[in-house]
Every structure is written in structure tokens, then in C-alpha cells.
Amino acid sequence: MASSSAHSRISNLQNHLSPLEANNKLRSLVKISPQVSEALSNGRAVVALESTIISHGMPYPQNLQTAKEVESIVRENGAVPATIAILNGVPCIGLSEEELERLASLGKSVQKTAGRDIAHVVATRGNGATTVSATLFFASMVGIQVFVTGGIGGVHRHANHTMDISSDLTALGRTPIAVISAGVKSILDIPKTLEYLETQEVYVAAYKSDEFPAFFTEKSGCKAPSRVNSPEECARVIDANIKLNRQAGILFAVPIPKQHSAAGNLIESATQRALTEAREKNVTGNAETPFLLARVNELTGGTSLAANIALVKNNALIGSQIAVALSQLM
User: Fold this and answer.
1) How many angstroms separate the CA atoms of 40 and 259, rounded?
2) What value does the CA radius of gyration of the chain take, rounded to a whole number of Å?
3) Would the CA dihedral through 221, 226, 230, 232 be positive or negative?
4) CB atoms within 10 A of CB 300
5) Annotated catalytic, 281?
6) Alpha carbon distance 65, 49 (integer Å)
7) Chain-centre distance for alpha carbon 143
8) Catalytic residue among 71, 112, 185, 313, which?
9) Single GO cellular component annotation (predicted)?
10) Residue 57 pLDDT class (50, 70, 90 cuts)
11) What is the per-residue pLDDT across 66-87, written as a single tens digit (0 to 9) for each?
């Protein structure tokens, strides 16, 4: 009876909260930096940034340098960066320089945190670097509409045997935020990933291209479902998605700049070798992508890491321009 009574009280509380009150209650559970809070309150452009790329994407201090440069690009293009992470159990939306330094220096000792892991990391007062799915959750909670990342997760190769499909895809299907990425990582099964995104009702468009990009390279061999040609066009799509109250997200796939595009054959050869090694070593789950990216970087003599950094910076540039254009519509 006591449990039933408690459940009833919670239900009554929820029923008496207006949407605004409910949103404010959720916001009270996170720490929003003063800069991000002010920008959101004044309708300025804000760009969400994930933190797994910092902790697991590259070594220290290169990860810190890259994170600072990406945030600078966002600022230089008129938006406010909001790097998201969980520190000592507190979800942080926008990191100070000290917090960014701490996250970068902790590196892989920080838990890679997908959407499913959020409650556990918070409950145990742990440190968590957010993946795409977790970053989407927190960005949506505070009202950020644009999120920049390197590449989203997807359907893994041999998923017909392993059932390994990233929660990034289902999170995109239920979170009305625009993600700007260089497509999906080429270590994944790109055709199946595009099919899965279609099932999740995610609008997918390539930026100034008819072909869907493959992260390290401009082309994947897959035709993009749609095409957009400017930040303003992207902003109009996001604005319409919001006004129509669609609950699915948007993926704008931005090809890596030509001058930084890695040789496709070199990357693909290294990817195939890394995939074979991962299977031989039984590397699975959320450990697989960091392993594959690190191994591909080794096999390509650092070419893939240099390409990774270049595409993230380019995505930050385009994403900031989209966020600014969106702020002018709202």
C-alpha cells in the first residue's frame, strides 16, 4: 500500500506541473554554464558538443587542444559552445576551461556514457563523457537545437550476426535536434545505417552534395536521401521541424573538406584489417568503435586522426552558421 501511495503522489505531482514547470524542474538537475544559460535565455545561437571525442577520441594533450579550437570556431562564428559531460555525478552543459582540462587529462578513465548509462553515472557520482545519444538527451533537456559532432554511430558491419546497432540512431529518432556530422564513421555499414535512420523517421541530408559522406572521405558510394545547400536552408528545415512538433531529429551530413580527405582505399584497407583484429580479440560493444578508430589511425600512420580533427572543425564551422541562422528565425 505504501508503494502504491508513493506512486500516486508522484503521478499527482506530475499531472499538476505545467510543461514550463516540468522543464524547469529538469533543468534544476543539471549545471548550465553562465554563458550558455544567458545565451539560451536571450535566444542566441548555442551549439552542443559531445565529450567522448575528448576523452576517447584522441590522446592528451591533443584532445584538449582540439576541444579548445573547436569551441573557438563556434565562438568566432557567432554562437556559444556548450560542451556536455558529467562531472562528479553532475551533468554539465557548457564546461569551464578547468573542467575541459580535467576531462581531457582523465582521458579513457572517464566512462563513455551513452543514453542508457546516464542514470548510473549520476547515481554513482561518476565522471562521464557523453556520446551522441547522451548529448542529445541533455541538449534537448535545456532547449539546444543544434549539435555538432564528428560522426554518429550506426549499424556495425556484421550486425546481422551481432545485432550491434548504435543507440545514436534510436536517440535521433526520438529527439527533435539537428545533428551536424561528417556522416557516419566508415568503419560502419553505411547503407544499413541509412535504412535504419529512414525507419526512425530521421530526415537525412548531405550538405552541398548529392552523395552521403563517409566520415574520413567525401564519398561513400551511397546517394544521400536529400540535399541542402546553405546554413539558411538548414535552419528553415529545423524551424519547420520544431513548428510541426515532429519528435524525430535531423541529420545534416557535411563532407570533409577536399584538402583533408584521406585516401579512401588506404582507410578502407586499414578498416578491414582493424575489423578482423577486433573480432579476433573479441572487442565488442561500446569498446569497439574507440578500438577501431585507434587501430585505423595506427595503420594509416596518423592520416585518419588528422582527417578526424579537420572534419570536426569543419562541422563546427557549418554547425555554428546553421545555429546563428536558426536564431534569426525564432
Assistant:
1) 35
2) 19
3) negative
4) 20
5) no
6) 15
7) 15
8) 185
9) cytoplasm
10) confident
11) 999 999 999 999 999 999 999 9
Give the three cell numbers for residue 318.
557549418
Rounded Cα distance between 166 and 156, Å, is 8
Element (DSSP H or E) covering residue 14:
helix 2-16
Distance CA(142)–CA(149), nearest Å, equals 18
Q: For residue 216, which phi and psi values (nearest 5 degrees)?
A: -70, -20
pLDDT in tens, 154-186: 998 777 877 889 999 999 999 999 999 999 877
List Cα–Cα distances, 168 to 236, 241, 266, in angstroms.
24, 19, 27
Among candidate residues 21, 25, 31, 50, the one labeled active-site is 50
- Is 50 an active-site residue? yes
Tell which residue, 69, 78, 188, 88, has the closest CA to residue 132.
188
Q: What is the pLDDT of residues 213-239, one digit of tens each?
A: 988 888 888 999 999 999 999 999 999
Provide the grid cell at 123.
Answer: 547515481
Q: What pairing do the DSSP bridges indicate for beta strands 80-87 and 128-130?
A: antiparallel
Pairing of strands 80-87, 46-49: parallel
